[in-house]
Design brief:
This protein has 445 residues and is an alpha/beta fold. It has 17 helices and 20 strands.
Length: 445
């Protein structure tokens, strides 16, 4: 069998490595330049590869093509692959064919990384043999090749789910749905939502599907879709049993046994993180982890970098890095969790954003808007006349300089951009790192 891997990043190199370990004929192609660390893995393992080019003739002779989630499905090469009827898979699909481990897969528009990391922490804290992968951490495929885990907790994007055929998690979680990546789904919200629901399409009645009962689009689609897995809801608005819910003071998980915990004991802040904790606790209970162990994990979990990360507090002003908030809904959760007046840094590559969702929150909580991007016109036009203080910047240094000048004691400076990072930065991580660097430089002068 001829395997071709498109993309020489973490997932692509991991997939090529797994193919090599399984004795398959594998070739990796990347139209860009492959990082030295990945090139070293390919070279050391005698995996043939090319960079700076796609040899289409060779690629189209493959029996099975593994595609990086970063390659758009509308790309000409992908269209030609589909026209030829060659099996096209994501790394998660490919790797799952070579492991009998139980997979816990997490998707949603927001909270994926936090919830995936939290579930991993719950399992690890209970001494379970577990790996962390997907859109986070080490390549899932490389772990399947080298490590013998009994469980894998995977963060899964809609782009990865677009390219599955047989992927079947033991537990799947769909945290929420909001309008994101619509440019890749013909600007059709339902098309994007259906891609997310593919996480459950191969599940059987001995599997579990955890979903958000407060999410309108999820409920609408659940009425139409046939999902065979046992459905378990979580909610911040109503009591559900079996399932998990919260009131003003506590979270509750109602399964075979009952578990409750005070909200102020949770290590994570914000309503959205209460929902994430409910979803993660349900997964823990399905895996028969004790209430005491789950409680301990929820109290000791450290927040994910670039997600509501407190950088520092100087002269009574807090600086929070939420660079991972690349859509409006994510920024909504961040703004909702702010306690006092907020200087909001927003902007980047717009993905079809509708700012009406956060308009009321911005009016109530934001004292100044600092736009950070090459083209801030859409944000400025939307909030013009609704906020007195709007600034147009095109560098992190400038954004932090203005933040420092306008923030007063008791305020929070929040980087929660609503947008992708690729106009000024290499990634949301790069954007967050630059924010932290500038904050720590400027506020300590």
């Amino acid at each position: 069998m001829k395997i071709v891997v498109l993309g020489g990043g973490e997932s692509g190199v991991g997939a090529a490595y797994l193919a090599m370990k399984k004795g398959l004929d594998v070739f990796l192609s990347d139209k860009g330049i492959i990082k030295d660390e990945y090139k070293a893995i390919l070279t050391e393992n005698n995996i043939e590869f090319e960079e700076g080019n796609h040899d289409e003739e060779r690629i189209l002779q493959a029996d099975w093509i593994i595609k990086s989630p970063g390659i758009p499905k509308k790309a000409d090469l992908i269209v030609r692959i589909n026209e030829k009827g060659i099996r096209l898979s994501s790394e998660i699909e490919f790797a799952s064919e070579f492991t009998s481990a139980k997979i816990i897969a997490v998707t949603g528009s927001n909270g994926k990384t936090t919830t995936t990391s939290l579930i991993y922490h719950i399992l690890k804290n209970d001494n379970m043999n577990v790996g962390l992968g997907g859109n986070i951490g080490k390549s899932f495929a490389k772990q399947v090749a080298d490590e013998n885990h009994e469980y894998y907790v995977l963060e899964v994007s809609s782009f990865q789910l677009d390219d599955i055929q047989n992927f079947r998690p033991y537990i799947s979680l769909l945290l929420n749905l909001s309008q994101d990546h619509l440019d890749q789904y013909n600007y059709n919200y339902e098309e994007y939502a259906l891609a997310k629901f593919r996480i459950a399409e191969n599940q059987e009645n001995d599997n579990f599907f955890i979903y958000n009962r407060d999410d309108e689009m999820s409920l609408n689609l659940l009425e139409r879709l046939e999902i065979k897995a046992k459905k378990l809801p979580f909610s911040l608005k109503e009591k559900v049993k079996p399932g998990a819910y919260a009131d003003e003071d506590k979270i509750y998980v109602k399964m075979q046994d009952h578990f409750s915990m005070k909200i102020d004991e949770l290590s994570l802040i914000g309503k959205h993180n209460i929902a994430n904790s409910l979803a993660a606790s349900l997964a823990g209970k399905i895996l028969n982890i004790t209430s005491e162990s789950i409680r301990n994990s929820l109290m000791t979990f450290q927040a994910v970098e670039h997600r509501l990360e407190l950088v520092t507090e100087v002269d009574g002003v807090k600086y929070i890095n939420d660079s991972k908030a690349t859509n409006v809904n994510a920024a909504y959760y961040a703004l909702e969790s702010m306690k006092g007046p907020t200087v909001w840094i927003v902007g980047g590559v717009d993905k079809g954003n509708d700012y009406t969702e956060i308009e009321d929150l911005v009016k109530r909580k934001v004292s100044a808007i600092i736009c950070l991007g090459l083209d801030n016109e859409k944000i400025i036009n939307f909030f013009q006349g609704k906020k007195d203080h709007i600034y147009d910047t095109s560098s992190m240094e400038e954004a932090i300089k203005i933040s420092r000048s306008v923030a007063q004691k008791g305020d929070t400076v929040l980087l929660s951009p609503c947008c992708a990072s690729f106009d000024l930065f290499n990634s949301y991580e790069d954007r967050g790192d630059q924010f932290k660097k500038e904050v720590l430089q400027k506020v300590t002068i």
